[in-house]
C-alpha cells in the first residue's frame, strides 16, 4: 500500500496521515511478530531470526518517525527504504519456501530455519546498498 502510494507521488512529500498510519501498522505488526517469534515452531534459530526481524522492523519505523519530526526528509527516506525492505520479508519468505521445499527438496525444519533469516537479511542488505548508493550519487552531483 505505502509503496504504491509513494511511487505515484514521485518525489512529492507523502501525506502525513499515510505515514503515521503505516508506521502505526508497523509498530503493531512488529510487536505481534516479536511475540510470535518467541513461540516459532523450530526453536532458538527461528526465535532469533524472526525476533530480530521484528525488532529491526520496529526500530526502523521508529527512527523514520523520529527523523521526519526533526525535518530531515532525506534521512526519513533512507529509514523508510530499510523499513520497506523488512516489511517485504513476509513476501520474500513466501518466495523462498516453495523453492526450498519442492525444488531443493529440503525438509520443513531446514527450510523454516533458513527462511527465518533469509527472508530479511538479503532484503536489508539490498536496502542498505540502495541507501548508500543514493548517498554516493548525491555527493557526486554536489
From TrEMBL:
Query: What are the transmembrane regions?
Result: 21-41, 47-65, 86-106, 112-131
What does the UniProt keyword field contain? Membrane, Transmembrane, Transmembrane helix
InterPro entries (UniProt xref): DUF2306_membrane
Keyword set includes Nucleus: no
Q: Which domain of life is it from?
A: Bacteria
**Pfam families per record:** DUF2306
Q: What is this protein called?
A: DUF2306 domain-containing protein
Q: Which organism is it from?
A: Candidatus Acidiferrum panamense
Amino acid at each position: 500500500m505505502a509503496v504504491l502510494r509513494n511511487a505515484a507521488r514521485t518525489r512529492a512529500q507523502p501525506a502525513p496521515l499515510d505515514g503515521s498510519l503505516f508506521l502505526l501498522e508497523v509498530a503493531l505488526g512488529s510487536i505481534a511478530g516479536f511475540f510470535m517469534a518467541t513461540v516459532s515452531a523450530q526453536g532458538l534459530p527461528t526465535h532469533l531470526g524472526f525476533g530480530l526481524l521484528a525488532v529491526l522492523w520496529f526500530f526502523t519505523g521508529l527512527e523514520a518517525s523520529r527523523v521526519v519530526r526533526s525535518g530531515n526528509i532525506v534521512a526519513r527516506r533512507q529509514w523508510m527504504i530499510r523499513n520497506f525492505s523488512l516489511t517485504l520479508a513476509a513476501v520474500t519468505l513466501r518466495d523462498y519456501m516453495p523453492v526450498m521445499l519442492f525444488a531443493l527438496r529440503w525438509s520443513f525444519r531446514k527450510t523454516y530455519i533458513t527462511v527465518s533469516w533469509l527472508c530479511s537479511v538479503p532484503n536489508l542488505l539490498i536496502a542498505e546498498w540502495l541507501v548508500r548508493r543514493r548517498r554516493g550519487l548525491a555527493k557526486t552531483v554536489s
